[in-house]
Each structure stands twice: as C-alpha cells, then as structure tokens.
Write a structure and sequence with these properties.
single chain, 293 residues, Protocatechuate 3,4-Dioxygenase, subunit A, 5-stranded mixed sheet, 12 strands, 20% strand, binds benzoic acid, binds fe (iii) ion
Length: 293
C-alpha cells in the first residue's frame, strides 16, 4: 500500500468509527441528521485538507461567537445568515404553496413583547425617519380575507438601527396590530433604509477577510399569524435599493420588492395631511392553510 492509500485508509477509519458511534441513536430523525452531519463534515475536512492550525482558528472563531452572544446579540444566527444556511432552510421549507407570499430570513431583532398599535396607528413611536404609510390585505391562498390576523412589524430607523441596538428597554419602530374584518391593514412607520448587520464581532471579521460587505437592503419585517394558517415570516424590500443584489444574508426575493411612492405633501389615504414628505408602500400578504390533523 502506498503512503496515500495508507493515509486514506486511516482517515476513513476515523469517519467509520464516528458513524458507528451514532448508529444506535433511538430517535430515527436524530440518527439520520447526525450520520449525515458526520459524513459531510468529515468530507469537508478531507476536501480542504484541514490543517491543525486552521482547526484551532475555527475553534477560536466559535469561542468568540459564543462570548459575544447574549440575550440581545446572537452571533450564531448571524453566522448562519451570512453562510446562507438560514435562507437555505427557508428555501427547503417555504413557501408551502407557490401562490403564497414568499418567506425570508427572520433576523435577530424580533422581540416578543412589542406593543399593540391600533389599525392605522404609528409603529414608529419615535423612531426617526421619513413617515411611511403601509397598507395591504392579508388573505388565504384561496382568496378569502383573513380578518383579525396578527401583523407583527419591525424595522430599523433612518440611522439603520433597531430600537434594541440602542438599549434593552428602548422600544420604537415595532408593534403589532390586527387586520380589519376584510383582511385589510394599514399603519404608519418610517421608510426603511439600508443598514449593516452587526459586524463588530467574529462574523464581521469573516466578512472583511473574504471581501464581503455587511449591508442589507432597506426592508420592513413582518410576522403574520392567523388561525389555522401557517405563520408567515417575511420582509418587504424597497425597490431601487442599491443593496438588493448584495444582501449580506441573501434574503431578497423579487416577489418581495415593493415600489415606495414618494409624496411631498397632500392627503394620505387615511385622510391625514402629513406636514412633511412621506412615502407609501402597498403589499398583500397571502398565507397557506395549515393542514388539519
Ligand atoms: C435583519 O434584517 O434584521 C437581520 C437579518 C439577518 C442578520 C442581521 C439582521
Ligand atoms: Fe432587518
């Protein structure tokens, strides 16, 4: 046997031993996932001929990611996002039907206890930016309007920051409301602007080392919850944004890109007369019924 064959056999023996160690996993799904993970992870290490120094660098990287992660900063989700794993998982699972609104990445800035805002209210609640009137309808794929659906909305301010990035107890630029009986909704917020994902940690270093940028195109997040329907997690993106083609987390889908109309004055659809320039976006959200068991 030549030296290459000996090395290949030695490597194969490690992989086989590890696979065998998981072979008796009782939960069949866990068994499937772990066996596949080991196969692919070992194949990756063989493919790049991973050096011991590189292995140490990877461990240091993950250790730094752990140290920077807390209740408000989730570096592992960020890592999944920039590696495209978050969007691949969305692509594998969503949409449940082609006629439904496409889903995209959840991101780390959703908070559970955002305040309720009345239909037509202002979720900006002090967030700085150009006022933006957002409206549309929530309905099921069969066209039936979904009245009383919960619409959770969150977005960054004009400086590209979410409220929680200022301080843990600061709440602005987010809220939830319920759709009218005909499924319609409207609210005010601030016009989204592009912003960088947090890039002062190991994920930012990875982006810099690989010549990638941290920017996300302007967007507004939605989580739409309706009885007997699959929850939709999505964004609307602002058409014309320079970062639509280089979203750091690969979240853009053409069907989610919306024109923002710009108005200098005049009357908004809710009858108010904004004193300054304002914008308007319209987007319908189409949900898939949850299979009944
Ligand atoms: C966001 O859009 O809020 C976001 C998504 C992924 C990573 C960082 C931020
Ligand atoms: Fe965002």
């Amino acid at each position: 046997m030549n030296p290459q064959e000996t090395a290949a056999r030695r490597e194969r023996a490690v992989t086989d031993k590890v696979l065998a160690s998981f072979a008796d996993t009782a939960d069949p799904r866990l068994r499937e996932v772990m066996l596949s993970l080991v196969r692919h992870l070992h194949a990756f290490a063989r493919d790049v001929r991973l050096t011991e120094g590189e292995w140490e660098t990877a461990i240091e990287f993950l250790t730094r990611a752990g140290h920077i992660t807390d209740d408000r900063r989730q570096e592992f989700i960020l890592l999944s996002d920039v590696l495209g794993l978050s969007m691949l998982t969305v692509a594998i699972n969503e949409p449940k039907e082609p006629a439904a609104t496409e889903a995209t990445v959840f991101g780390p800035f959703y908070v559970d206890d955002a305040p309720e805002v009345p239909l037509g209210g202002d979720i900006a609640r002090g967030a700085v930016g150009t006022p933006c009137y957002v409206s549309g309808q929530v309905r099921s794929v069969d066209g039936n309007p979904l009245g009383g659906a919960f619409l959770h909305v969150w977005g960054a301010d004009d400086d590209g920051f979410y409220d929680v990035q200022y301080s843990a107890d600061h709440s602005a630029g987010r809220g939830w409301l319920r759709t009218a009986p005909d499924g319609s909704y409207h609210f005010w917020t601030v016009l989204p602007t592009p912003y960088p994902i947090p890039h002062d940690g190991p994920v930012g270093d990875l982006l810099a080392a690989t010549g990638r940028g941290p920017m996300r195109p302007a967007h507004l997040h939605f989580k739409v919850v309706a009885p007997e329907h699959h929850t939709l997690i999505t964004h609307i993106f602002v058409a014309g944004d320079p970062h639509l083609d280089d979203d750091a987390v690969f979240g853009v889908k053409d069907s989610l890109v919306v024109e923002a109309a710009h108005h200098t004055a005049g009357q908004a659809p809710d009858g108010t007369r904004p004193e300054d320039a304002w914008a308007q976006m319209t987007f319908d959200l189409v949900l898939v019924p949850e299979p009944t068991s």
